[in-house]
Amino acid sequence: MNNIVDFIIDVFLKKGHELYGGEAVTQLEHGLQAAHFAKESNASENLIAAALMHDIGHLLHDLPDDATNNGIDDVHEALGAEFLIQYFKEEVVEAVKLHVPAKRYLCLVDPEYYEALSSVSKASLILQGGIMSMEEKNNFELNEYFKEAVALRRWDDQAKIPNLKVDDIYTYRSILEQSLLKNSL
Length: 185
Ligand code: FE
Description:
The chain has one domain (about 5-185): Hypothetical protein af1432. Helices cover about 60% and strands about 0% of the residues. The protein has 12 helices and no strands. The two termini are about 15 Å apart. It is globular. Fe (iii) ion binds near residues 30, 54 and 55.
């Protein structure tokens, strides 16, 4: 293993074949699709990297894939951010950390968003703290990475399409490399 980018690609290839918690795509497909939608939206490279890795926390713990069904919040956004902060730029880390609060936020400001959530995602919402209060919403909007987090969340929710043809993980090597902290290169 030469560097952290190789390690991350390896994690996806080794552990990304589990289904994405009750959805019809694997973890790898889900990450690649989220990154694909970020690219289509002309997102920054940091944000494309964040989209790809937003659920890496799911691949770094040993809880069963259906933990939500058993009433367990695996706090994957925190696990992911804790890992990424060692190697990646702040925008990457913050977008990953905030993608769950962004879901709670969107449920408050966009009732159609809530209705469109998959049943799995509605179930995990309760474990994640439910729909935001107005006070939480106001605080969230003040966050420096609020817009990035909401954008990432929308790609995340789109990224559940069975058999969608998208670029493979290797095409993200340079994007991941440029999103690294300088001392991680
Ligand atoms: Fe996700």
